[in-house]
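To the wet lab folks,

You asked to see what we're planning to order before we commit. Fair enough. Below is the target structure as tokens, and below that is the sequence we designed to fit it. If anything looks off to you, flag it before the synthesis order goes out.
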């Protein structure tokens, strides 16, 4: 199948590209290497064709006309809650207008399907736990609003133009290639801190609990949805909540030494507990997470260790 992955040089998108290429698909990437995003040339699979382009650019239509994707995995986004609160206009421009530009190009070129990276941020404060897909969506940030709006546009286009879609609402995705300098991605940030010899920062009392899912499992859900589950929305997590304190203990255990902590106040808008129900992805998509936190930690820590060794060798 011809698959176009927007944001395919980024953290999650690049793992989807790798899995799709290894499954024998013909893959192209749109990415503009946004300065505050996780897109890196080193993440790019050499077998994927790169179109270096902003998703808001009308030239996206030329990409669709040339590559003729049968499916699009839409992962390019303004991905930060914090940036969305500082600059809601930019957030909406990329996450809504950019998505619409991609949808319009898809409709014009006869693309069958879009897979959309949505978020736990669309739910807001949980009204019950675990959160299932029927939970009300009352986002607390502009980012959560634009992701929710994206879901509604896809529902509209399915009815208006027959463009099929699958929506994935991700929990906290972690793994190799996550940007350790970003404002989210606590596991990558902790790995970066430890390798830099700095203490890890724990906000609030560290008992805030989230659903951490390994990026390889997320990529597998995307590849499964290429030809399944049209019109469906799924939570993608593990169904297991882990506190920041437990993450800290797990990382210290996996590297076999103490990791000092710097305490900080609660961040505005931080949710106390977010744990997903994932039964629907199991029963409808046949997907389940296969990587537990200990394995995921170990793989992630090895990646950051190897990257740090490589950059030290380059600079010496
Ligand atoms: N990481 C998570 O835990 C998480 C959770 C929920 C949802 N998501 C969503 O998953 C998707 C991927 O997130 P990620 O963590 O891999 O982020 P990332 O920053 O690593 O990847 C996003 C990619 O999109 C590219 N991009 C940004 N703006 C662009 C634009 N205007 N035109 C073209 N390319 C652009 C970036 O260069 C980057 O390569 C995003 O849509 C994000 O909102 C991520």
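Sequence we intend to order:
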């Amino acid at each position: 199948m011809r698959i176009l992955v927007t944001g395919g040089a980024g953290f999650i998108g690049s793992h989807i590209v790798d899995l799709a290429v290894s499954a024998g698909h013909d893959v192209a990437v749109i990415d503009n290497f946004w300065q505050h995003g996780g897109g890196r040339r080193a993440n790019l699979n050499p077998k994927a064709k790169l179109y270096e382009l902003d998703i808001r650019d009308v030239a996206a239509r030329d990409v669709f006309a040339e590559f003729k994707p049968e499916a699009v995995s839409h992962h390019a986004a303004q991905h930060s809650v914090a940036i969305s609160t500082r600059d809601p206009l930019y957030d909406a421009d990329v996450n809504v207008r950019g998505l619409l530009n991609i949808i319009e190009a898809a409709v014009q070129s006869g693309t069958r399907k879009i897979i959309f990276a949505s978020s736990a941020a669309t739910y807001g404060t949980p009204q019950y736990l675990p959160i299932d897909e029927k939970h009300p969506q009352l986002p607390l940030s502009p980012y959560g609003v634009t992701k929710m709006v994206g879901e509604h546009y896809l529902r509209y286009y399915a009815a208006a133009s027959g463009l099929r879609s699958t929506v994935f609402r991700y929990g906290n995705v972690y793994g190799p290639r996550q940007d350790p300098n970003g404002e989210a991605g606590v596991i990558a940030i902790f790995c970066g801190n430890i390798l830099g010899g700095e203490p890890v920062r724990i906000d609030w009392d560290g008992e805030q609990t989230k659903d951490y899912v390994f990026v390889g499992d997320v990529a597998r859900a995307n590849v499964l949805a290429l030809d399944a589950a049209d019109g469906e929305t799924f939570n993608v997590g593990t169904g297991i909540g882990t506190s920041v304190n437990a993450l800290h203990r797990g990382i210290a255990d996996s590297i076999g030494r103490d990791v000092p902590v710097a305490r900080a106040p609660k961040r505005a808008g931080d949710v106390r507990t977010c744990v997903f129900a994932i039964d629907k992805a199991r029963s409808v998509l046949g997907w389940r997470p296969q990587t537990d936190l200990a394995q995921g930690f170990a793989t992630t820590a090895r990646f950051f260790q190897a990257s740090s060794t490589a950059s030290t060798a380059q600079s010496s």
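Structural context that might help your review: The chain has two domains: 2-171+213-236, 186-210+239-315. Residues 7, 9-13, 30-34, 37-39, 54-56, 75-77, 79, 94, 98, 117, 119, 170, 172-173, 179 surround nicotinamide-adenine-dinucleotide (CB under 6 Å).

Thanks,
Computational group
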